[in-house]
Amino acid sequence: MKTCLVVDDSSVVRKIARRILEGLEFQVTEAEDGSKALEICQRQLPDAVLLDWNMPVMDGFEFMGHMRRLPGGEQPKVVFCTTENNVAHIAQALSGGANEYIMKPFDKDIIADKFAEVGLIPVGQAMV
């Protein structure tokens, strides 16, 4: 079973994302900020990270930079999931190591489509 780390300071967003990802057959771990997420990644890297940008303690962009420098840190697929929608933020995320970018609010179809695009789930599974 593939693993996904959901990093968001909103417990509601984490709960919704967990429900969607478990429906896509992911084992889900949660973190409420980038610092906690980094601790989790130092123990074991997930296959995927669904990542918020704006969080206390350590934001998503800073976390991603630290994670990418860990041994094997280039492997997890990072999908930013945020309200930051200007082109500069999207470009910064993608050039900084993100694989994809989705806007809040999201639903199952949006997550499934993006996870299929980055190769985390079969394309057909995104259409179920």
Automatic annotation (TrEMBL):
Protein name: Two-component system response regulator
Matching InterPro entries: Bact_response_regulator (IPR050595), CheY-like_superfamily (IPR011006), Sig_transdc_resp-reg_receiver (IPR001789)
Pfam families membership: Response_reg
GO annotation terms (biological process): phosphorelay signal transduction system
Taxonomy of the source species: Bacteria, Pseudomonadati, Pseudomonadota, Alphaproteobacteria, Hyphomicrobiales
Response regulatory domain ranges (all copies): 3-119
Organism: Bradyrhizobium betae
Signal peptide: none
Residues with PTM 4-aspartylphosphate: 52
Keyword entries, A-Z: Phosphoprotein, Transcription, Transcription regulation
